[in-house]
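User: two proteins, same treatment. go.

Assistant:
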Amino acid sequence: MPLLELEGATKRYGALTVVDDLSLHVDAGEALGVVGPNGAGKTTALSLIAGDVALSSGRVVFDGEDVTRRPAHARCRAGIGRTFQVPRPFLDMAVFENVMVGALHGREHKADASEAGVEALERAHLLDRANVKAAQLTLLERKRLELARALVTRPRLVLLDESAGGLTEPEVAELLPTVLALKEAGTAVLWIEHVVHALLAVVDRIVAIDRGRKFAEGDPHEVMSSAAVQEIYLGAMA
């Protein structure tokens, strides 16, 4: 049984359909990549899974339970963590304080929260910046902080929204081992990304979507080299 199942997901805003009957799944410990052009509905799909946006129709099933009607905080407690494309730290707070905001949620003991915060910063390779204000971080460090804030809840599934976006090639190379380590540690990953070579270094499968619909799925290299993806995603001639 998959860890996550998105079944016939549709999201409409009036007459505009952003996600259209989209189905996908992620197995426990698997890394799934999602690609598509700007405006394809990728981030909206992520928000539907996380519970930040309500479905117009369809279902979200996590670990065998229908969580479609559960709010985002309940899905987080169930084991779904997410990052955002644009990092959203509390700029006037230290890195550790930023992580502790999530660590304290749902925990009765501060010691447990502190342990989880340290662990998350270690996994995100940001522990040495724990006492630095978030406003002083580089973009790569803010991306790492975004990841740490997702990891502090000890999720079984992490949703990554363009974690490599805006980074230089050397910075992407620095970030990749961190993401790969998540999968190697048994955490499932669903990663939306435009930096294709980064995806290919980590994911087990790729789903390609356009206009809210899935049009390709399978082996990462086969999907990215297919004529459909070359034409629709990369804008090449068929």
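Protein 2:
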Amino acid sequence: MKTLILITGYARAGKDTLAEGIIMGSKRLACHVNFADSLKQSCDCFMQVLQLGGSGSSKTFRNEAFKLQHRDFLVAAGMFARSIDRDVFALAFSRECKRIAAMHDEPNLTVIASDWRYMNELTISRIMLGDDWNIFTVQITTAGVQAANEEEGKSIGDIVRNTSFHLSFGFNPDNKQAIITEGKNLARKIGT
């Protein structure tokens, strides 16, 4: 059965690092796909149309330094799209999961999303992916890491109040290796 692992937590809590560990520990095909991937791709297309970037350019929202420098634009674009259709990114994500599954024809595919930020992302994933997918929910916290802004605090708080997580992890700051190790252990535990 295909598996979707949704990881939630505040920015800088170690979500991407946990996903990295899961992929490292996985014995079967595992892909890291995020809800925000379609947003980043759309913003990159915007820049390409205006000839602000180019092939091989570091001016891409996939570049972490560029993304952090221009985060306000990314957030505004995301809010704009969600104001028209609050499910837009959850739907795009679910379509991408289906596309990857069809492309690889792998019955035991694992997809890890390390940017689960809204309750509707879980709801839409369940509806769109159906019974063919096992959805596994994970919360990660790191001591001293708080919500980056009010909106993040509200959206993650909504998830925490309304979800019975399969697993919750708490880490001390600057503990990348411990997070990777737990990711590897998680991969073994759920048989990915």
